Amino acid sequence: xxxxxxxxxxxxxxxxxxxxxxxxxxxxxxxxxxxxxxxxxxxxxxxxxxxxxxxxxxxxxxxxxxxxxxxxxxxxxxxxxxxxxxxxxxxxxxxxxxxxxxxxxxxxxxxxxxxxxxxxxxxxxxxxxxxxxxxxxxxxxxxxxxxxxxxxxxxxxxxxxxxxxxxxxxxxxxxxxxxxxxxxxxxxxxxxxxxxxxxxxxxxxxxxxxxxxxxxxxxxxxxxxxxxxxxxxxxxxxxxxxxxxxxxxxxxxxxxxxxxxxxxxxxxxxxxxxxxxxxxxxxxxxx
Length: 287
Known about the structure:
Elements: H1 2-26, H2 38-51, H3 60-72, H4 77-89, H5 93-106, H6 108-123, H7 126-139, E1 146-147, E2 150-151, H8 152-162, H9 166-183, H10 191-203, H11 207-220, H12 225-238, H13 241-253, H14 272-282
Antiparallel strand pairs: 1-2
Helix pairs in contact: 2-3, 4-5, 5-6, 6-7, 7-8, 8-9, 9-10, 10-11, 11-12, 12-13, 13-14
């Protein structure tokens, strides 16, 4: 019973302080926590930050608790990072980067990977992504780094591919596949790594290597329409129109399995219209 009363009193104190803070903000008063020691400010910042989750995300009280946590301790990397994630959800990239950059400054090993991933897939800042991910790698010698649950070297490879550095991209993708193979086996690698490597090989004129990549993708993912589509492209390069047509038709049959992402377009994302155009172009008059 005493514990329950203590919790209720703490909540009332927090609510009271928050209301005071909102009023202070309205009349542009100074920080009401200036009398607290640095240690107490840091502890109270965590309390406010953790308490924000009890209010509707994006609501006035939720925002007030988050803002108060940052006011109390503007050097807490985790609080700043989570604020950046919220700004990302609202589409405010300017504010998102402000908080994320500060989090990286305070704790680079913890947050460089996320920033590099964000630059790669959302901002399409490929050189910035490479800088962040290379820096992360340099800070963690002997460690296989992951950026937002994806292998950092793989993401560097994708960034280099998008910049047209196909040889550099292949080096990085090879390194990623080798790491995964050593840890868990090649079948644990992202099957799209073979597709991206195949695309790079095709751009470099390494058509046989590219075909091996697409065959390997099919081996590990028989239901991936992208593999058949790109194999069809390579068969067209060879002049094997009939065989290419069969691949495009297979890709069409599997069109419901096309890989997409709810938040951004994937690199070389396949669309149904892409397959349709190839079928119209190479399957006319064929059974």
